[in-house]
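All the exercises in this workshop are built on plain-text protein records. Sequence and backbone structure share a record, each on its own labelled line. The structure tokens are whole numbers drawn from a learned vocabulary of backbone shapes. The record below serves as our worked example for the rest of this section.
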Amino acid sequence: MLPKGTRGGALYAGADGSALTSEEGLKGQVGAIADALPKAGDEAAAKKKLPVDFGLFVVLALWYLGNYYYNITNKLALNAAGGAAGFPMTIATLQFGVGALYAIFLWLAPDARETPKISFKDWVKMGPVSIANTGAHAASVFALSAGSVSFAQIVKAAEPAFAAVIGTTVYKTKVSKAKWLALIPVIGGVCLASLGELNFAWAALITAGIANIFAAIKGNENKKLMETPGLKDRIGTVGNQFALTTITSFLFALPLMLIMEGHKLGEFFTLATTTPAVLNNLVLSGLWFYSYNELATIVAKKTNAVTQSVANTAKRVIVIVVVALVMGEGLSPLKLAGSTIGIAGVFLYSIIDKLVESRKEKKSLVV
């Protein structure tokens, strides 16, 4: 059951600006979900009473729904604004802005979320993570503007391969032979899917690859950041960490937007005020983007690493197939085969990764 006080609202707008569908309003939904679900201290008792964690299923469903609608509204906003030749950087920046406003609203609203107690030095330390987050999101939006949603998702599924290469070369992390072998189907599947892409675009391939590079850097920098003594306690929650990263990313993206598309911002604002499909989908995509990422953190808290890997893999399959059907994108047998192999490789890599980490923890406990 959704929190009391939500209202019906359009999920996304069609090319003529009309609402295509509607359901419970998004505003306030994510901030209240954590309170509506069983608390961590009561989780064990709840599992004894019920064989199934229905709260987890609700969060998973909303996470998938949020990711699905983010991709739909994002693509519709980009198409309505002219695609790759339009305003992808402006849209990416304003999506951060929508998320930043929502995060601030949760801090100001009574009993919604406790504000972090960080210093200016702490904020500066979050800079590398926020820069990488800015690059990952902006490049992903560019990829969506240049190609199909399904193709961009397939390329982004190869993120573990980028993470392995960058981790070993830049951050001097170790990758086991089993994990390197698991990357073979990931890379092979992406290559096969690229051959089967009916609307192949080099720009989409390159920008999705850049998004993977920034995402890999973000993961490593975030790990370093959270190892800073006392920082995690000062931030307070994972939700606060994401909120701070979103706000800082908006501040980093703003000058890039002005440099890249500032000369035609007047044209964008005219388009946004006269074409409801642009403004409506821009706002909604920003809310969906922030919301589904917060829901992902709730899933991470309520599940173990393996379950999270399964859920994330299933999410990619649903987004690739369902969004392709809704948006009328081609799904040739070769593309389907490539995406299946690639995503299966990602799942295998994730499982091996968790097993390796589990063994390391057991060894450290023995020592």
In short: DSSP finds 16 helices and two strands in the chain. The CA atoms of residues 63 and 295 lie 5 Å apart.
